[in-house]
């Protein structure tokens, strides 16, 4: 997929997501889901944000549209948003594992796919426990006006659908204005070899950390295309490379992919256009920065000491 195709895919998917999210908001479906999921507040979520994990499974765009509206109205604080988004990672990971990840990797590399899935899941469980502990303490004495959700039911009408489509298109255009220059900047860096230069510069570092040439090849390939890199796992198994080394290599490859591509191609489109710059940067640090640090750390530990 070339950059133009990637841009069209991102813009199309995000624009559809904006329209769908706006429809969910304008028809009252978001508030209805909020009522149905209110019990999730016991896990440390703000009562007005208990719908976020559920909306994330429908479309992350809807979750962010709903949360950003509450943020603009001053009904939640940025910390409430961060906790809700972090808590959403666990159900998203579970869905991703059984719908996309395991069906692809399990037939390819067998039990190693299960080990790696558990390695990825462990991080999200730890984050969920952290959110639960912090959230329970944060909202223990908080007075939240839950009554404002009372009586909300989905109200699908021609007028609400028109408002939703109009609002979704407006937000999609705002997204285009902010995202396009950032996308062009990243393409410029890639086209001028900056990303490849960074990868080449990191190769000696990986070698000094205990990765062999095949493992480094996997990491650099995964930084560009994880599906292509998966084929190298079979080769590592045939060469008798230890499972801990394979898992560590996969973790670092995932970190490199997140570092060089994932954050701007997948995460940034969810945030830009909805949040102020400061909140966008904080969300990127939480959703991209923390997993990158975790994957690098786990990968290096597994390869260097196991």
Automatic annotation (TrEMBL):
Signal peptide: none
InterPro entries: MJ0871-like
Record key words, sorted: Membrane, Transmembrane, Transmembrane helix
Transmembrane segments: 6-25, 108-131, 172-190, 210-233, 245-264, 284-303
Protein name as catalogued: Nucleoside recognition
Organism in which the protein naturally occurs: Balnearium lithotrophicum
Source taxonomy: Bacteria, Pseudomonadati, Aquificota, Aquificia, Desulfurobacteriales
